[in-house]
Amino acid sequence: MLIKKAADILSSEITPKSLYMNRRAFLAGTAIAGAAAVAGVGVREVASPSEVVQANAKIDGIKKSSFSTTEKITPYKDVTSYNNYYEFSTDKEGPAELAKDFKTRPWTVTIDGLVKKKQVLDVDAILKMAAPEERIYRHRCVEGWSIVVPWVGFSLSELIKRAEPLPKAKFVEFTTLNDPKQMPGLRVPVLEWPYVEGLRMDEAMHPLALLCFGMYGEVLPNQDGAPLRIVLPWKYGFKSAKAIVRIRFTEDQPINTWNKAAPSEYGFYSNVNPNVDHPRWSQAKERRLGEFLKRPTLMFNGYDQVASLYSGMDLKKYF
Amino acid sequence: MKLRWFKVVVFPACLVPLGYLGWKAYSGNLGANPIEAITHSTGDWTLVFLLATLAITPLRKLTGQHWLIRFRRMLGLFAFFYGLLHFLTYIWLDKFFDLHEMLADVAKRRFITAGLTGFVLLIPLAITSTSGWIRRLGGRRWNLLHRLIYFSAMAGVIHYLWLVKADLRKPLEYAFVLALLLGYRLVVWLAPKVGRSVSIPSGRVEVSEG
Ligand code: HEM
């Protein structure tokens, strides 16, 4: 796989104009009590300067995937300016700016625990393990909003197979970089750092589980988890760990960060489930960014093919 | 005379947050989740105006600038105004008039219960904010009724503490300011009983406590 600098590709070209226009239409339709104009006339496209000068590296040779949804893709601008990435900031607008100078090279990932091939891999070596695919996935945040993102990567199983886990390995644990110098949010103990996530081995081996390093045909932006993250479309967004530096195979179930922070609110599995509410809010509906009315949330976020992983489990208990 | 001019400045100043929000909505700068942005902004300003209203009496007593009292009603009404916008945002933009869902929310989500408590407590205060009502109720009873703002502000802060996911810093900042403002009143209230201070004005006759 080749990653070449393509200074001529602007993010605004990647995102179809019509998608921007949709949100404008929605905004125009939203009258805000007594405040300025409601009519959508003369509303201009306001592109932030950073978006215009940003020249992202295009990823070559991306294959299409049958796992992709045909739903409307969320505008690139939204996906890169609305980020839950507490290592940088607890404000969603924060990471875009604060992650600007984040160093994603050199970058290594430590593979250890119950595997035959314990090793420290260069991220570029990982990227060459398999051909990049575009996977257009629905992504549902535990907070009740959702987006549709054309991720780029390949199945996480490609990496796991090569690491050759021992038969004793039942779980995989992912750790995010813990560098307070680069990530200001880590200087604040809102969560226990570093960020840790985990999957059962069969979940991690499921072809939908994506090892991801790009989106919208380009290298992953820093605020979206560069250089390497996982994407688990049937689980709430926080399960999809970003900026991964360590993948460890274990016999015991890892304790993921949010579960540690509030065990009654965030479980280990955290599968998208409209029938199990967050103790403080309902999970029955979600707001797709750019849409006005909420839509019903689907079991496993609509990825029914994972249901067999949980057959016989009480998902109210193992939420 | 001067005060009147000052009011002419302060009133529009209190509308700046709304104007800014409207401008951002108009120019498409509310971010990826405009409804959340509106909910948060109106919620923040409700709390800010509540605390500003509660700050008038301590400021006035501590600085001797008694004219400040003339702004208390206006600030209180702006707290109600932003609270109303916040509530309408929830009813209209967030829940889209889904009564069933809203009732479930009020019953099940304690942060909504707390928020609603805070808002409902402000309604009688807004209604009785006129001079006519002060006369009708009498200063003493009016003062007593308007102590409800303490509980409204407390409910507002608790609402905020309960709704955040992990980062308690901002709600705790508000909680700290509220604790100072209510703590001041507690001290004023307790001081004469301890039999020490004679310098604290009791102010019972004027409609200015609170
Ligand atoms: C005195 C009354 C109230 C005050 C002072 C208040 C204040 C606030 C504040 C400060 C926030 C957080 C803003 C931020 O994150 O920047 C907030 C959020 C919110 N409030 Fe209120 N509020 C009040 C009443 C209500 C009522 C009556 C409702 C609905 C019934 C309500 C529903 C909400 C919702 C849904 C959120 C957003 C929660 C989230 O983002 O998860 N509030 N409010």
- CATH H-tier superfamily of chain A: Oxidoreductase, molybdopterin-binding domain
Query: What share of the residues of chain B does DSSP label as strand, in percent?
Result: under 5%
What is the class of chain A in the CATH system? Alpha Beta
The topology string of helices and strands of chain B comes to: HHHHHHHHH
Q: What is the H/E string of chain A? A: EHHHEEHHEEHEEHEEHEEEEHEE
Distance between the termini of chain B: 26 Å
Strand content range of chain A: 15-25%
Protein chains sharing the most extensive interface: A-B, 41 and 36 residues
Classify the helix fraction of chain A into a percent range. 10-25%
Q: Output the CATH topology of chain A.
A: Sulfite Oxidase, Chain A, domain 2
In quaternary terms, these chains amount to: heterodimer
Which word captures the global form of chain A?
globular
Radius of gyration of chain A: 20 Å
Topology:
The complex is a heterodimer of chains A (319) and B (210).
Chain A: E1 3-4, H1 11-14, H2 17-29, H3 49-53, E2 58-59, E3 63-64, H4 76-79, H5 94-98, E4 108-113, E5 119-122, H6 123-127, E6 133-140, E7 145-155, H7 156-163, E8 171-176, E9 196-200, H8 201-205, E10 210-215, E11 218-219, E12 229-231, E13 244-250, H9 257-261, E14 285-288, E15 295-296
Parallel strand pairs in A: 3-6, 4-13, 7-14
Antiparallel strand pairs in A: 1-2, 4-5, 6-7, 7-10, 8-9, 8-13, 10-11, 10-12, 14-15
Chain B: H1 2-26, H2 34-63, H3 72-94, H4 99-108, H5 110-127, H6 131-137, H7 139-146, H8 148-163, H9 169-194
Helix pairs in contact in B: 1-2, 2-3, 2-8, 2-9, 3-5, 4-5, 5-8, 6-7, 8-9
What does this structure look like?
The complex is a heterodimer of chains A (319) and B (210). Chain A is of the alpha+beta class. Chain A has a single domain (11-310), classed as Oxidoreductase, molybdopterin-binding domain (Sulfite Oxidase, Chain A, domain 2). Chain A is built from 9 helices and 15 strands. Chain A has helices spanning 11-14, 17-29, 49-53, 76-79, 94-98, 123-127, 156-163, 201-205, 257-261, and strands at 3-4, 58-59, 63-64, 108-113, 119-122, 133-140, 145-155, 171-176, 196-200, 210-215, 218-219, 229-231, 244-250, 285-288, 295-296. In chain A, strands 3, 6, 7, 10, 11, 12, 14 and 15 form an 8-stranded mixed sheet that branches. In chain A, strands 5-4-13-8-9 form a 5-stranded mixed sheet. In chain A, strands 1-2 form a two-stranded antiparallel ribbon. Chain A is globular and about 45 Å long. By secondary structure, chain B is mainly α. Chain B has one domain (35-189). Chain B has helices spanning 2-26, 34-63, 72-94, 99-108, 110-127, 131-137, 139-146, 148-163, 169-194. In chain B, helix 3 (72-94) packs across helix 5 (110-127). The longest helix of chain B has 30 residues, at 34-63. Chain B starts with a helix and ends in a 16-residue tail after the last helix. The A-B interface holds A 23-24, 26-27, 30, 32-37, 43-46, 77-79, 81-82, 86, 90, 92-93, 143, 145, 188, 190-191, 261-262, 277, 280-282, 287, 289-290, 292-294 and B 18-19, 21-23, 25-36, 38, 85, 88, 93, 96, 101, 104-105, 108-111, 162-163, 165-169. The complex binds protoporphyrin IX containing FE (HEM). Residues 36, 39-40, 43-44, 46-47, 50, 83, 86-87, 90, 94, 112, 115-116, 118-119, 152, 156, 159-160, 163 of chain B line the site of protoporphyrin IX containing FE (HEM).
